[in-house]
Description:
By secondary structure, the chain is an all-alpha fold. It is built from five helices and no strands. Helix 1 (2-31) runs parallel beside helix 3 (70-99). 14% of the residues are buried.
Amino acid sequence: MADSDAGSELFGSYEAELKLVQADLNQKLDQVPELTGEPRKSAVRLAERSLEEATELLDQMRIEKQNIPSSARSKINQRFRNFESDIDASKRKLKDLSSDRKALFGSRYTDDPNTDEQLEQRQQLLSGTDRLDRSSQRLRDSQRIANETEDIGRGTLADLHLQREQIQHTRLTILESEGYVDRSVKTLRGMARRMATNRIITVAIITVLVLLIIGVIYSKFR
């Protein structure tokens, strides 16, 4: 229960931080359409960094929500899906803003792919795409780790359940063995009592016979 409470608190902490990052990201995205040239490129880069930070926080929330009890996870999942939808919308918006090359590069933009300026523009766009790809890869890796962790947890629970059954079976076997031992002890005690009784009876019979013999002999020589 303590681990579940800690997971809930940590998820809430990530959620609060993500809301702040989202507000900052939305503000930056709203500023981009008003800019051109270098200011626009700078604003796009700032928005990309905020988007990366938001994606990383979303990945952490995805992992932490696995530690939340199933009874409370439905509401958590709904909030998480809302955050995912918002982040995806921000990604699409940033992609649209980045694809407006004329506004992004201003008067320097040209359709001639052989100029140095155009090559630089293409490299910058590719760099932004690479960052988005890395973020997506981190998301997939986090999901894979979460799935592997969940599989390991299920396996551990199954092993513990099997060990519990083995312990219970061993305990029943021990109790049954103790019952056999108790009955054996009682049987041996009964046999010992009967042997002692038989010995006393035998001694008594021999004593009576000896006394009778002595009496007969005494009567003959009297």
